[in-house]
Amino acid sequence: MSLEEIKSRIARAEAAAGRPVGSVTLIAVSKKQPGDRVTAVLDQGHRTFGENRVQEAAAKWPAYREHYAGIDLHLVGPLQTNKVRQAFGLVQAIHSLDRPKLAKTIARIAQEEGHCPELFVQINTGEEAQKAGVMPDQADDFIADCRALDLPVRGLMCLPPVDEEPTLHFALLAKIADRNGLAGLSMGMSGDFERAIAQGATHIRVGSAIFGQRNDG
Ligand SMILES: *Cc1c(COP(=O)(O)O)cnc(C)c1O
């Protein structure tokens, strides 16, 4: 599917939800994609991208930045505390703030560096044992702790269980964000971004629908 088609589907979903066109940020998730597909999307003028590993972001994006101005890079995957400083030099937003130790490390490095990427707290809406994210019943306390550390929490993120209807998870994320006064909702991927927009997504993370199947073995 082309970038233009995805953008028109986003615009239709925004209109259907009674939301202003342009209110949803499209993060083009370029992990594990061949370079020619990424440059094709850059050449069409798109500048907001997502990666799920710091190491892969570090290997790819400094070179793209030499050729394309204004790249806005989002880390959408897990972040180890020993990679936080490196992430600060690469990304404008982190969507995977999911534990107290990471919050404390980000706060310390933000002090030292004098800036901090925007943060989304990842919520494990499906309460899946193998998945990252704060459990829904601990979300309010965790968000309060992050705010006490002066962290710039912009919103919440979720990755619904693969075999469940995502709408219920999107609605739960929206409810937790609303009661905590958070405006950002990072939710919705290639297969469900229209449903996420209907539930109030502000940031959708779309990979394969833009770039094609990845090489993820
Ligand atoms: C890979 C990935 C996406 C994009 O997935 P697609 O199904 O290819 O759209 C979105 N969010 C996260 C956290 C991812 O790791």
What is this structure, in a nutshell?
The chain is 41% helix and 16% strand. The chain has 9 helices and 8 strands. The chain has helices spanning 3-16, 35-43, 54-67, 84-88, 100-113, 139-148, 166-179, 193-198, 208-211; strands at residues 25-29, 48-51, 72-75, 93-97, 118-122, 153-157, 184-186, 203-206.
* Basic shape: globular
Distance between the termini: 21 Å
User: Whole-number radius of gyration?
Assistant: 17 Å
Q: Main sheet?
A: 8 strands, parallel
- Helical proportion? 40-55%
User: Which residues sit in consecutive blocks of at least 5 with pLDDT less than 50?
Assistant: none
Number of helices: 9
Which structural category fits the helices and strands? alpha/beta
User: How many E-type strands?
Assistant: 8
Unique bound compounds: pyridoxal-5'-phosphate
What is the topological layout?
Layout: H1 3-16, E1 25-29, H2 35-43, E2 48-51, H3 54-67, E3 72-75, H4 84-88, E4 93-97, H5 100-113, E5 118-122, H6 139-148, E6 153-157, H7 166-179, E7 184-186, H8 193-198, E8 203-206, H9 208-211
This protein binds pyridoxal-5'-phosphate.
The site of pyridoxal-5'-phosphate has 13 residues, from strand 8 and helix 9.
Describe this structure in words.
The chain has 217 residues and is an alpha/beta fold. The protein has a single domain, classed as Alanine racemase (TIM Barrel, Alpha-Beta Barrel), CATH 3.20.20.10. The chain is 41% helix and 16% strand. It has an eight-stranded parallel beta sheet with strand order 7-6-5-4-3-2-1-8. The mean pLDDT is 97. Pyridoxal-5'-phosphate (PLP) is lined by residues 29, 31, 52, 76-77, 159, 189-190, 205-209.
